[in-house]
Each structure stands twice: as structure tokens, then as C-alpha cells.
Amino acid sequence: MDNDNLIQKWLNGELSESELKDFEQSADFEYYQSIIKNAQRFKASNFHTVDDYETFKAKKLVAQSQKRGFSKVWMPLMKIAAVFVVFVGFYLFFLNDSLTTITTTASEKTNIVLPDASEIVLNAESSITYDKKNWSNERMIQLNGEAFFKVAKGETFDVIAEKDTVRVVGTQFNVKKRTNYFEVTCYEGVVKVLAGTRQRILKQGDQFVILNNELTERKLNNTKPYWTQNLSSFSAVPIQEVFDEIARQFDVNISTENINNDQRFTGGFQHDDLQKALRSVTEPMNLRFEMSAKKSVIVYEVNQ
Fold first, then answer.
1. In a 3-state reduction of DSSP, which class is residue 299?
2. Which helix (H) or strand (E) segment is 277 a member of?
């Protein structure tokens, strides 16, 4: 039986049980059914009849024409898009293959030597990323967290901390980038800081701090960051930032109950004993703490 007669008998419900079974297993059966369903969807009434064969045949030709039109227009574009996706995939693969990322966990610090012999000390819960293959052409570090740098003399050395940039040639400096907090301290040489619309040239002993978008500039006497000597030091920072640093250095969870987390703290704590560190911070602020469970601390006011 030719194909047209087969379709006409199917539309009229005249196929035998064996013919219907064979027709439903054919490769084009779902395609023919979709034409019927799409035609029924646009009828004004819930009551409908199946199109006669000539009407069905006309709709089939229209559908095939539309399908060919779609292929003619979109297939070349889809091929171009596929080539583009493959190209981007290869580019990202080889780019990422040249990137080195080093990350520290809570309570961990690590020392890093870069290809030009520049040195980095990375603080807890921090990370750096740099392009090891292109290092001789572009000395650039992506920083998340805090790190102390001893930069070998050479071409420009950039530290990118989100949208902020620290630029040097050969010097020693510290960069700290946490939530709503950006700090740069120059210990040797000269550092250029680009923080949004703010630009500063820092010399030895200069410190640049942006806290909640407020700028503070200080003079320091120390020759390296205290945290590299296992001591965290703060000057008029919100108490929550101090508790966050304790959590990073001791790998604990610290929660506060009904205290003003924006009150400012000046002082520090050693990294060798958690309870001593907590007392160093809570007692001057008239606060108390409890070790509620393993690696969990609750801080509250004394008068509660």
C-alpha cells in the first residue's frame, strides 16, 4: 500500500488491526500525530473532527516547508555558535590550565614563593590566584582575604582585591580584603593604592583603611604584620570583625547574643590559645563567652 493511501485510511479509521500496528511503529507516525494535535489546538470549540486527507496533506506540506525554512535560516547560525562554544571551551581550558590558585583553610597560614622569587605569607581563610606561564610578562595576583608580600624588584607588581588594586615595583606590604573592609600597609618601599575613586601613594609605615566606605589613614612603627607572628592586632574596628578573625584563626563558630556588633575594639589576641584569645577581646568590652559545644562559642553581655 502506498503512503498516501495508508495515511488516508488511517484518517478515516479504516486500517485493520495489523495495518494500524505497523503504521504506529513507523518512523513518521509521531510526526503525523503532531500535525493533528497542533491543528486541534487552534479550533474554537472543544468539539472537533479529524481533518480529511486533503486538508491533512496540505498541512503536512506546510509543516515540512516551515521545517525546511527553519533549517535553512538557523542551521548555519547554529553551526557557527557550536564552533564558537568549542573555541571558548578550549580557550578557557588552556587559560585555566596556566592559573595557579593557593587557598588556606581556617587556622592555616602558608608561605609561597613566586616565579620571580617574590614571597607571600597567606593568612587563614584566604586565597591567591596567578598566571604562572605569563608571570614574566605580567606580575599580577588575585587576592581574596589577607596576605603579606615581599616583592622582588622588577616590572610592576599588581595585587587585585575585588575592585581594588595595589601596585608596586619592589617592596614589602600587607593587603587585607574582607567584607566591607580593605586595608593596605606599606612596610618598605612605595605602594600605590587604587580603591574606587580614591588613590594614595603609601610609604614606609603608612596604613590605608576603608571600613564601610569610610577612609582612615594611620602611621605605624612595626616592621611586619603582627599576624605573621601569630598575633592579631586591631585599631578601632567593629567587634564583629575581631570575632570573625578569631573564628578564622582557631577554626570555630562564634555567635553573638544581643550585643552591639558595631562597637569598636582596639587590642589583639595570640593565636595559640582559644580561651585566652576570647578573654583578651571580651573582657575589655564587658562581654562574656561560653564554649557551648565542640568548635562553637556564644558571646553575650555581662549584665544578661
1. strand
2. helix 274-282
d(CA 224, CA 183): 14
Strand partners, 181: 178, 211
Q: Report the CATH architecture of 104-227.
A: Sandwich (2.60)
For 37, 250, 282, the CA distances from 276, given in Å and listed in that order, are 76, 12, 10
- Dihedral of the CA atoms 75, 81, 87, 89 (nearest 10)? -120
User: Which 3 state secondary structure label does DSSP give 132?
Assistant: coil
Whole-angstrom CA distances from 285 to 118, 233, 240, 241 are 40, 15, 12, 14
CATH architecture label of 230-301: 3-Layer(bab) Sandwich (3.55)
Residues of the chain short of pLDDT 50, as ranges, are 39-50, 70, 88, 90-91, 93-95
Q: How many whole angstroms from its chain centre is CA 257?
A: 30
Segment 12-24, tens digit of pLDDT:
667 777 777 776 7
